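One example given next:
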Amino acid sequence: MIRFALPLLLLPALTPAADPTPAERGKKALESTAFIKAFWPKPAYENAWKVWGLKEKPKEYEAAVRERYGLHPAPYPNDGYPMGLRSAGMLIGKGVGIDCMTCHGGSIAGKSYVGLGNSSLDVHLLFEELAAAGGASVKLPFAFSQVRGTSEAGAFAVYLLGLRKPDLSLALEPKELGLHDDSCEDVPAWWLLKKKTTMYHVGATDARSVRSIMQFMLHPLTTPKEFADAEPAFKDVMQYILSIEAPKYPFDVNAKKAAAGKVLFEKNCADCHGTYDDKPTYPNKVVKLAEIGTDPTRAKNIGPKFADAYNASWFAKEDGLKEIKVNPGYQAPPLDGVWATAPYFHNGSVPTLAGVLNSKARPKVFTRSFKTDEADYDKEKVGWKITEVKPPDAKASGYERRKVYDTSLPGRGNGGHTYGDELSEAERTAVIEYLKTL
C-alpha cells in the first residue's frame, strides 16, 4: 500500500465547485428554458421561406431568417435558432416559440447582447408569416408592431390580461381593458434596471417586481400553476438582469472633447439623467408630458382599466411591492451604454444622439438597413445611419410600410426634449463625445 502513497500525494487537491449564484442560475434559466409553449410547429420555421415569395430555400437559411425578421445570432447554444426563437413543447410534440430575447436580445457593431433592446425586429411579420408557414389562417388580433424596431408591448399586456381572471385562470368572457396598438415602443436596455426604482417608460411599476417580468408568459395555454412554478426561476432571472453591465463603446473617443462634454452634461442633463463619476447618482424622475413634450401616446394608452385589473391580479400580489400606477409622463432613463441603445426616445423616433440634442436636425420620414454591423452605425452622430424617404404608398405591403418611420403618424412624433437646442453645435458635439464613455 505504501507504494501508492507518493503518487496520491502528488495529485492536486480537489476544491469543491462553488454553488452557482442566483444571477448565474438566472442566466442559465433564461438561455436554456422554454417558459411558454411553442406558437408554431417545427415545419413552420423550416418552411417560412415559402411565404417570402422565393422559389427555393436560401442556402444560409438561419441568416436569411434573421434578416427577414430582424433577429440576431444567439451568443449561447440555441439548437440552431436565432436569438429570440426557441425549441418548445406544444400540446403534442415539439415546436418553435419565442422567449424574452425576441425583444430583449439585440446586436450592435456586429455583436449580439442579451439585454440590449432589439431595434431591428418586425414582430408582426414574424407571427404573421410563421403562422402561415405552419398552415394556419390567422388574423392577428391587433398590430403587434406599427414600425420595425418597435413593438406594441403595452398592447400585448392589455390584450392578454383581458383574457384572464385575477388568479390567471382563463376568463369565459374577455375583458376590454383599453387596448391601443399605436404606442411604437422602443425596448429599454436591461442593464439600466439596476439603477431604477420603477420600470417601463412611464415608471409605473416597482423595478424589483419579479412577477411583472413574467407577463410574457401569458400564452393562452399557460396555466396558473405554471406561473407559480416558474416564479423561483424568475427570481434568479431578475438577479441576472440586475447583474448585466452596459457594453463599452468599441471605437475611438476624443478624451479632451469628452472631458469638456462631461462638464456640459452635468450642468444641463444630470438633473434628470444622473451623474456617472465615482459616486454615480440617478434621480428616477418621471417628467410630466407638458414639460418633456415628447409624443404622449404611450403615456396615455395604458390607463386605469388596465391598472385596476393588473392590481387585482396575481402579478401585483408580491410582498412588499407597490401596486402599479398611471403616470402622466415619461421616466428619464439612466444613460449607461447609451451609445448602443439607438434609436432614441420611448418610441424610437430619433435615430441618433445628434438628433436628441438638436430637435431641428431630426428626420421626419426615414428608413434604415435594420442591419447592425459596424457599417450601419453612425460613429459621428452616434446611432443608426438612416436614409430620408417619402411616406410609403398606402398600397404597399405591411412589411414594406413598417420599414419606414413616418413621424407624422400617431404614436411616432419626434418632437419635445428640446433641451439641447440651446447648446452650440460645438457643445453638442462635446456632449455626444462624453456620452460615448458612459
Observations:
- Residues 1-11 have pLDDT under 50 and may be disordered.
- The first helix runs from residue 5 to 10.
- The first strand starts at residue 40 and ends at 41.
